[in-house]
Every structure is written in structure tokens, then in C-alpha cells.
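Let us walk through a complete example step by step. Step one is to write down the protein sequence. Step two is to encode the small molecule, adenosine-5'-triphosphate, as a SMILES string so that its atoms and bonds are unambiguous. Step three, shown after the inputs, is the structure prediction itself.
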Amino acid sequence: MDFSFTSHSPQQTIKFGNHLGSQLKGGEIIAFVGPLGSGKTHLIKGIVEGLGAHDAPNEVTSPTFVLVNEYTGRLDIFHIDAYRLESLDQFEQIGFDDYCRPDSVVLIEWADKVKKALAGVNYFKITLTHLDAAPDSPQLVDFRTITITNYPDYILL
Ligand SMILES: Nc1ncnc2c1ncn2[C@@H]1O[C@H](COP(=O)(O)OP(=O)(O)OP(=O)(O)O)[C@@H](O)[C@H]1O
Ligand SMILES: [Mg+2]
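Step three: the predicted structure of the complex.
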């Protein structure tokens, strides 16, 4: 199933993540794709909160230097940022396979960089884009289109 909508604020993106996260059952691998500042980390903050990791949202930042952040809620959550990964081997070395378990959720920012490593993996994708703001409509700068493709049918959006 596919779903697309426009978020009008960082708060709305987090709220949507919350709604999505609350419905995850475990075993999901979600690939986040979109340019710098498109809201991947904000959406993940919401998902992590929706999974009941209530202390974690303040700690949810792009795991740019550590590559993986872990949070615990209803399920174990592994938040990977592939932006600075140097190779697909490194993606394997950080333990990707071990993170994918029936009782965990794996969230991957910049997943397009590790697309090859995800080839045989059952994941779904969330694409974020800045809405092209007309020069005379500065209020649109906070608009983001969020598109979710091939998500499991138990998730109601
Ligand atoms: N509707 C929106 N949804 C999410 N973020 C928004 C929105 N409008 C404005 N923003 C701003 O855009 C930025 C998004 O930052 P965020 O770290 O979530 O992006 P990102 O895609 O993870 O970036 P990076 O690729 O650098 O990790 C924040 O500064 C946030 O305040
Ligand atoms: Mg980020």
C-alpha cells in the first residue's frame, strides 16, 4: 500500500511518526530517503515516541558519528544513519543483520546509500521531500511531502 501527505510543521511530522510508531509490531525495517533537512530524524523521533520509548525522543538525533543509536520502548529500536558509512561492508560490520529481529524495529536514514545491502531484505520505504516553495510563498518552507510505499497492511494511516 502507498500513502502520501504533506506535513506543515516539524510538530506535525513528529505526530505522524507517533501514529505510525504506535502500530509497529516488531520485525519492521524502514528505509528513510530524502535530502538534508527533509525531516527524517523528526519523523523517527515521533516513531520512537510512538513505540513507547518516552525518554528517548530528546535523545533522537541523527546518529551521524556513532552510526547507530539504540532506544528501548515496547520493542528494541535501532536507528542507523548511513550518511557517513564508507562502504557496504561497514554497514554489515556495524551488525545490521543482528539488529533485524522479530522484536526489533530498524530505522535507516539515508537508506539509498545501502540499497544494495537491502536487496534481499523485507523493508518498506518512506521518502521525504521539501515542497518546492514558490519564492513569494515563504510560509511553504516548512512543508514536507511524506510518501510511504509498500507498507504492511496492518498499519492504518
Ligand atoms: N514539516 C516539517 N517536518 C519536519 N521538519 C521540518 C518541517 N518544517 C521544517 N522542518 C525543519 O527541517 C529540519 C529537519 O531536520 P531533520 O534533522 O529532521 O532532517 P533530516 O532529514 O534528518 O536531515 P539530515 O539528512 O541532516 O539527517 C529541522 O530543522 C526542522 O525544524
Ligand atoms: Mg537526520
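Step four is interpretation. The chain is about 20% helix and 25% strand.
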